[in-house]
Amino acid sequence: MTRKQRFQYVIDYFLHHAPDAETELLYDNPYQLLVAVILSAQCTDKRVNMTTPAIFEKYPDADSLSKATFDELFPFIRSISYPNNKTKHLIGMAKMLQEQFNGEVPLTVEELVQLPGVGRKTANVITSVVDQQPNMAVDTHVFRVSARIGLTLNAKTPLATEKQLIQHIPKELIHIAHHWLILHGRYVCVARNPKCEKCGITAVCKYYQKNVAVKK
DNA sequence: ATCCCGAGGG
DNA sequence: CCCTCTGGAT
């Protein structure tokens, strides 16, 4: 099977089985999505969603969040990974939104990565989810799943994974393909003991063929 | 002990 | 490239 055929098989499968895949983070506008994605670093979406409603109620926009003090905001974030960093990042991010972007979330990767707490992955999430830009955010799930299936070849960094995926996935499908890989990684192709018996694409999966199929 | 939609700094 | 940040779930 060629690499092109592998991509085609995977795309066809998810187009049929997950045509409406989308983020599981709770949000109502770009500002809320940005806050949620910053909080999601090394933390499950489920746990982020437990904290964001209270944050959005007290800090409904960049203006109110920019005026928060560390001690006011910290308790909301305390039970998430890296609460110190994330509290600082959120306030700093909101201040820069106010000072440089009229309180609105910019929708280019170049502008987004200037914000405290926003790196390439977060910028790709915002621009692809809010604006359907053909940017591929590579998180731990996308990285792992792509490597296992064989969508990526010898990709050792998230950036390498991003470039290979963008090269092989049609532009108009990149933003949804991100969610296909995320959700597949979260519920089926999990890090430890992947649930290959539940997986619909083992026929083209390098990991399955190497580690599972041979033992049967 | 390992993992979760990483970012910043050295 | 490396390291640190750092809590909860499994």
From TrEMBL:
Gene3D superfamilies this protein is in?
Answer: Helix-hairpin-Helix base-excision DNA repair enzymes (C-terminal), Hypothetical protein, domain 2
SUPFAM superfamilies xrefs: DNA-glycosylase
GO MF annotations for this entry? 4 iron, 4 sulfur cluster binding; class I DNA-(apurinic or apyrimidinic site) endonuclease activity; DNA binding; DNA N-glycosylase activity; metal ion binding
List its EC numbers: 4.2.99.18
Q: Which InterPro entries match?
A: DNA_glycosylase, Endonuclease-III-like_CS2, Endonuclease3_FeS-loop_motif, Endouclease-III_FeS-bd_BS, HhH-GPD_domain, HhH_base_excis_C, HhH_motif, Nth
Residues annotated as domain HhH-GPD? 39-187
Q: What class of enzyme is it?
A: lyase
Keyword Aminoacyl-tRNA synthetase attached: no
User: Which controlled-vocabulary keywords does the entry list?
Assistant: 4Fe-4S, DNA damage, DNA repair, DNA-binding, Endonuclease, Glycosidase, Hydrolase, Iron, Iron-sulfur, Lyase, Metal-binding, Nuclease
**Residue positions binding [4Fe-4S] cluster:** 189, 196, 199, 205
Pfam families in alphabetical order: HHH (PF00633), HhH-GPD (PF00730)
Cofactor, how bound (note): Binds 1 [4Fe-4S] cluster.
- Catalytic activity annotation: 2'-deoxyribonucleotide-(2'-deoxyribose 5'-phosphate)-2'-deoxyribonucleotide-DNA = a 3'-end 2'-deoxyribonucleotide-(2,3-dehydro-2,3-deoxyribose 5'-phosphate)-DNA + a 5'-end 5'-phospho-2'-deoxyribonucleoside-DNA + H(+)
Please indicate if the UniProt record lists Metal-binding as a keyword: yes
Give the required cofactors: [4Fe-4S] cluster
Q: Which GO terms describe its biological process?
A: base-excision repair, AP site formation
Stated role: DNA repair enzyme that has both DNA N-glycosylase activity and AP-lyase activity. The DNA N-glycosylase activity releases various damaged pyrimidines from DNA by cleaving the N-glycosidic bond, leaving an AP (apurinic/apyrimidinic) site. The AP-lyase activity cleaves the phosphodiester bond 3' to the AP site by a beta-elimination, leaving a 3'-terminal unsaturated sugar and a product with a terminal 5'-phosphate.
Concerning its family, UniProt says: Belongs to the Nth/MutY family.
What is the name listed in the Swiss-Prot or TrEMBL entry for this protein? Answer: Endonuclease III
| Native source organism of the sequence | Niastella populi
Identify the coding gene.
nth
